[in-house]
UniProtKB/TrEMBL annotation:
The lineage of its organism: Bacteria, Pseudomonadati, Pseudomonadota, Gammaproteobacteria, Aeromonadales. GO terms for molecular function: ATP binding; phosphorelay sensor kinase activity. It comes from the Bacteria. Gene3D superfamilies: 1.10.287.130, 3.30.450.40, Backbone structure of the membrane domain of e. Coli histidine kinase receptor kdpd (1.20.120.620), Histidine kinase-like ATPase, C-terminal domain (3.30.565.10), P-loop containing nucleotide triphosphate hydrolases (3.40.50.300). It is a multi-pass membrane protein. Residues 651-866 form the Histidine kinase domain. This is histidine kinase. Keywords: ATP-binding, Kinase, Membrane, Nucleotide-binding, Phosphoprotein, Transferase, Transmembrane, Transmembrane helix, Two-component regulatory system. It catalyses: ATP + protein L-histidine = ADP + protein N-phospho-L-histidine. The keyword Phosphoprotein applies. It is found in: Membrane. One of its GO terms (cellular component) is plasma membrane. The chain crosses the membrane at residues 385-402, 414-440, 460-479. Its EC number is 2.7.13.3.
Amino acid sequence: MSDTKANARALLEKQALHKRGHLKIFLGMAPGVGKTFAMLTEAHELRDKGLDVVIGLVDTHGRADTAALVEGLELISRKKIIYEGHCFEELDVKAIIQRHPAIVIVDEMAHSNVPGSVHKKRWQDIEELLNEGINVYTALNIQHLESLNDIVSRVTGVKVSETIPDNVFDRASEVRLVDLPPDDLIERLNEGKIYLNEVIRHASDNYFKKSNLMALRELTLRSMVGRVDLQVKRNGAIGKTSSTGYGLMLLIDSITSQEAIREALRMARAMSSRLHCVCIDSAALLDDKQELSEIMAFASSLGAKTDALTGDFPYCIKDYANANNINVILLIPQSQRDLVKKRRLINTHMPNMSIITLPYSVKKVSIVQKLIATFKHTVNGVNDFVFSFILTGLITLLLVYLSDYIKEANLIMFYLLLTLFVAVKYGMIVSIFTSVLSVACFDLFIVNPRLSFAIADIEYLITFATILVVGIVSARLVTHSRYLSNNASMREKQTRILYTASKNLSKAMDDIEAFRQIQNILKEHLNIVSEFWKSSSDGQCIRLMTELKNVDKGLINYVQTHKKEAGFGTYTLSQSRYLYLPIMISNRLYAIAVLELQFAQQWSDPVNSRLLQALLTLLKQCLEKIVSEEESKTLLMNIEAERMRHTLIQSLSHDLKTPLSALMASAELLSNKLSVNDIKEAYEISKSVVDDSKRMVRLMSNLLDMAKLQSGQVVLNKQWLPAQEIIGSALKNFKDIACDYTVNIDIEPDCPFFYADPILIDRLLSNLLDNAFKYTNKGSCINVEAKERGDKLTLSVTDNGPGFADNNTQKLFDPFRRGGRESKISGIGLGLAICKTIARAHDSELLAFNAPEGGAAFVLVMPLVTMPYTEDIFM
């Protein structure tokens, strides 16, 4: 499984590189070997071949040959930044992106930008250019590689502060080695081709010693060999099964140096593995939280995966190692005893684990310092000590009374119980106070000679020491238990927060509600004020809520463009007041979260960052669900619209063709009869022409009415209508057909007036009657009734025909839905759909069911509206 993941990851990384620009690094062992010269020479060659090459930033350092090569190439103006009253020039990334050349020359990759720049480091500027698809040529000295920083410092005695992460170097598309023998480099230095004359002597006596240059040259060559080996392994990982799958984990349970992190990183690179830096949380590190966060942030900046574990040492390490396929554990022991203890625990619980010891110094924590740290973070009030003092005094009074009846050896047990009780309830400090006070009271009031600290039997010293040790040990155990309990409570709180977020987000019906739920959780549980900006289809970001002041729209645009975090607590414009996080859905930016953190550790600390990322992940999942549901609804609507379109075309092709064919045949026959003066036959034929025309009129009327009703163009003109008028008006439309049926009209006496639109209610009843006439045989009985039912009025049409074959009668009201005999009956299935729409427009309900006596029944249930009384209402 791990081999498959490695293959997939290698393939994804290779695909990602094709989308980015190509990075070519000119690597040298020291300044002056000719990196910039080689880079500019190649730039001229590429320009002569027709490629678009520009210079983003090149510093000639006063070298005439380098300055000569700059001429002839287009220069992008530098960005001026004012800092502490001085004007500095930096790389103008925005101008280069707007110019968008094929290749840009950017010198001094490890340079630190002036405060106020978008990025802290120039290599981050280069990353932005690469993400825009621009190819970059840059120069780098070996001492600027982060993993080699401490080695270079030991070799040369010079501490380099400007470095780049190794993973940036590893991702370069090409690295060209610019080499020069040490003797030739020293000669160039003495000739003034590297530095000005005033610094030549200082450089030659320090950094440019021949021994230093030889060591730097060896490091450079080794780095190139390591890079080639890494590329071979990466290329071999695609399409082949990797033979090894090492995972390295560096355990950090005390404050260590950055050199240890770099050494661990070098080992991970040599094994082509990812480094995991894991912090073992403990009470001894409570005072070093800030320093520990900086170490973990440093490891993360180098590409290591960081995490914080809480719990018993071997078990939490074992769980993490199993979950992340760890094969090698790196230890930085505080002492030989600490190393033996850790090795024993690891070998016991993980016998197949390889252990490597790194010989680096750590901040040792003695037992006394651990106790002090425990005391410092144990909060006790004055009342706790007062209660302990009073309780000790009361027990002493009781023991003075019992001392005449119970031996002194048994009386001491009362003080032991008191010490244990206080340790459990109030912690270590009060427990030690109680232990000392108990020893003093026992010596002063119980042991002879009384009222004196002198003791007659030296063995009582052992008793006194026992009480004190029991108090300290029990309190220490209780304190440790409380510490674990507090950590468990913190994890439980985080779990509860995530559960609450998951539960609330599951109820969100749209993205606004989802954003509001996360906003409330961040404010209530983490004291983080937030707001969200949604990315629109036109490329703009819409502010959905205004909870924060002075939000930087420039940073909003930056996150929208680059789709990565920025602002407070990050490496991009960290001086900003807020943290800006992209919310990605299906590889596209959906929104931007703007958070007002209380302190930077809320994002840089692994535990806090993991909680925030988990909340945002839940938000992303909720938004994906909402987007997916919206897309599904749109798809279903499109499918339904397409189905209705096909149904309409099929129905119209059938129901228009039939009457048109009949009309054409009747017209031809009518013409023939008229030509021979057969008036009687012509008259009969003309009636069929009229019937077919009426069918077409009803068909087109239904289509037009349905379109008007669904578009909302119809405005109701409600009037007070008697039932007799409604039924009579509808039956007039079928006076020729009704004579072939038995039509019964039943209007309840004193039936209230219907409050409805006369035209629409007539259309509704006409469609119901038309449906009854079409689906029953001639001679059938059709009943039309109007009655009052409580606060409702009902208008029903029933017949004694075949009724409904399908029990789900509500489907009959769907557009283009036909009955079981649709092949023999004309129509396109819009009549009942129009009736249902008219009923809804009147706040009424139209029901369909099989009548108890047989046949179909349609009942319109309308609200009973009391008609206002006027004297001339019947005038």
